[in-house]
Design brief:
Order of helices and strands: EHEHEHHEE
CATH topology: Tetrahydropterin Synthase, Chain A
Largest sheet: 5 strands, mixed
Helix content: 25-40%
CATH superfamily: 6-pyruvoyl tetrahydropterin synthase/QueD
Shape: elongated
CATH class: Alpha Beta
Number of helices: 4
Structural class: alpha+beta
Distance between the termini: 15 Å
Oligomer: single chain
Mean pLDDT: 97
Bound molecules: nickel (II) ion
Strand order of the largest sheet: 3-1-2-4-5
Low-confidence stretches: none
Length: 135
């Protein structure tokens, strides 16, 4: 098996909070990311696609196609958006790096050939990042 990787980037605002917790509890658990007035992150995404090399093309996946999927499903959907307010998936889902990676995985997964395996790594800061995958 071979894994190909494609990087992408988006800027987005968010707030981590639970509406059933008061401000003190939200601040205790979510820290600065619970600022009621939102704040931004420069998110870096790495999409990993694993599969066999197609003997005809020599590709696991045509990178032009993967680039277009990431552009439509992630960059158009999330870049320069307030995730809590403007992105339907986070209306009732806390936009942690974990949950953002999970949502991205599902959006890209539905566009890929079933024979390919997908995982996504999302950097919220250069030091904090998560990887999400499912079978
Ligand atoms: Ni944050």
């Amino acid at each position: 098996m071979t894994t190909v990787h494609r990087k992408a980037h988006f800027n987005a605002a968010h707030r981590l909070f639970r509406p059933d917790w008061d401000d003190a509890k939200n601040a205790e658990i979510f820290g600065k990311c619970s600022n009621p007035n939102y704040h931004g992150h420069n998110y870096e995404l790495v999409v990993h696609v694993t599969g066999d090399i197609d003997p005809e093309t020599g590709f696991v996946i045509d990178m032009k196609i993967l680039k277009q999927i990431i552009y439509e499903e992630v960059e158009v959907a999330f870049d320069h958006k307030n995730l809590n307010v403007e992105v339907a998936e986070f209306r009732n889902l806390n936009p942690t790096a974990e949950n953002i990676a999970k949502v991205i995985w599902h959006k890209i997964r539905k566009k890929l050939d079933r024979a390919l395996t997908l995982s996504v790594t999302l950097y919220e800061t250069p030091r904090n990042f998560v990887t999400y995958t499912e079978n």
